[in-house]
Amino acid sequence: MPDASIIYLYGGSSLIEEQIFLPAINQVPLVPGTLYLVATPIGNMEDITLRAIRTLRECDLVAAEDTRYTGILLKRLGLVKKQISTHKFNEAKRSSEIVSRLKEGETIALVSDAGSPGISDPGQRIVEAALSADLRVESVPGACALIAALTLSGLSADEFHFCGFLPVKSGKRASRLSALLKLPGTLVLYESPYRILKLLNELIETVPNRMLVIARELTKKFEQIHRGTATEILSLYSNKKPKGEFVVLVDSANALSPEKTSDDVG
Fold this sequence. Notes:
Radius of gyration: 22 Å
Helix content: 25-40%
Strand order of the largest sheet: 5-4-6-3-7
Number of domains: 2
Number of helices: 8
Oligomer: single chain
Structural class: alpha/beta
Shape: elongated
Strand content: 15-25%
CATH architecture of the largest domain: 2-Layer Sandwich
CATH class of the largest domain: Alpha Beta
Order of helices and strands: EEEHEHEHEHEHEHEHEEHE
Mean pLDDT: 89
C-alpha cells in the first residue's frame, strides 16, 4: 500500500489536515563500481534533489571540482565525506585514479561547483575514461543554468545550440561568434562578468535587431533576467559593474520580421 502523507491546507481562516496517499519512493541502492554524475545547486540550496542527497550520503568518495566549495555543501547537508579534487588542470591525471577505484567496486559521485558536471565544467574526460573501461556511469540530474535560463527566456526551445564560453582571443572569438549566429534556433552562451560588456558590443555590431535574454544569479534571491536588444541591455550597465556569471540567449534570425533581417549577420 502506498505511503500516507499528511498535507496541511488553508481553508478560509482555518488549517485543514488532509491525508493523501503517494506512491512509495523506491530507493535503489547504489551499484558498486559506478560513477554517479551528481548535479548540485546553481544558487538556491533547494535546487538539490532528494536523489542527489542520498547519492552523496551513500557513495564511497566525492570527486569535486573544488573540495572547499563542495565541503560547504556537504556540511549544510550534514554529511562528512572523503573528497578528492577533480578540476580542469588535473582531470586527465585523476581519470586513471578514479577508474582504478571504480574497478575495485567503489561508488564515486562526481560533482562540479554548481550545476551538472561536464556542462562547461570538468567531467567529460572522466566519463570518457570510465566508459572506455566498460564501467557504469549514471546521471543524477538536477539544476542546470542552461536549461533554467532557456525555459524562462520565452525564446524557442524547439531548436537551440549551447556553446559554453566563447574563446578569449579576439580573432578566434570573432570567427566563432559569427559562425554561431548563422545557426538556426536559439543560441545559448555562458559569459563571465569581465567579458559580458564586450559580448554585448559584439552583438550590437553583428546582430543589432535580435532579441536577447541575459540571466544572472539564477535561483538566488537577487535573480535578474533582462530582455531586449543588445543596445537596450548594454544601457542597463552604463552606471554599474556587471557581477556574476551570465547566461546569454540570442533569438533565432528566423524570429525576426522580414524588414529587420537586412541588419542581421551575413
